[in-house]
């Protein structure tokens, strides 16, 4: 085929680029994490302005992490034919993803400074861990560490952004860290084979599908237990009931994962456990979240 007869892909229009960028930011995790932090800020009694600031900072940080992930993984995604990735279909270029990632990073840093130096430092740890995972740690046995640190630092950022001198309680940071590790294990489940085919060998890949499908809901159940028992005093009725339900779902997910590791059920059930844990945190609110 001559150059004259070779089909030329039309350049995406500006509106198409915007849609492609939104699809490349990992919208699911971005929306979930931003919503969680915003709801937590409201639950701990932050004023409306601070709640809005938390939303903006976390959203910018998550956009930066999501776009940097698709930028760094562009070659891998093309190698395995990930047609769900806009960078593979040509709807967005790696260069545009790189520019968007750095722009969102700069915005996140600038906005976080408005919350004070301690809160800004906590959120810097979140974004730094997200980028560290994207650029290399995802392929090591320590792939869960960035998730543990980042998700532990997220509730710390929310509390530190709140006016006053309150510090995040240790149990709240522990719940975040456990949620992060559980989220890492769950998120990797659908892509284990594709990842392994491109040389990614993180902790879940080394454990294998069955072990990961069992461990993920177990870690998330531990997060729920800490969320219920962590605040001072006896557990309240609603968080306790949610906790019992979450543990029951986690046990079911673990049993299914052990018996049928190829099933999508462990992934779906583990996500339900994570959602129940978040609900426990929101219902608990400021009860012991600050020290």
Automatic annotation (TrEMBL):
Gene Ontology CC terms, in alphabetical order: membrane
TM ranges: 21-42, 48-67, 87-108, 114-133, 145-163, 169-190, 211-231, 237-259, 266-286
Lineage top rank: taxon: Bacteria
GO molecular function: transferase activity, transferring alkyl or aryl (other than methyl) groups
InterPro entries registered for this protein in UniProt: UbiA_prenyltransferase, UbiA_sf
Subcellular location: Membrane
Keywords on record: Membrane, Transferase, Transmembrane, Transmembrane helix
Topology within the bilayer: Multi-pass membrane protein
Protein name: UbiA prenyltransferase
Organism: Cellulomonas flavigena (strain ATCC 482 / DSM 20109 / BCRC 11376 / JCM 18109 / NBRC 3775 / NCIMB 8073 / NRS 134)
Lineage summary: Bacteria, Bacillati, Actinomycetota, Actinomycetes, Micrococcales
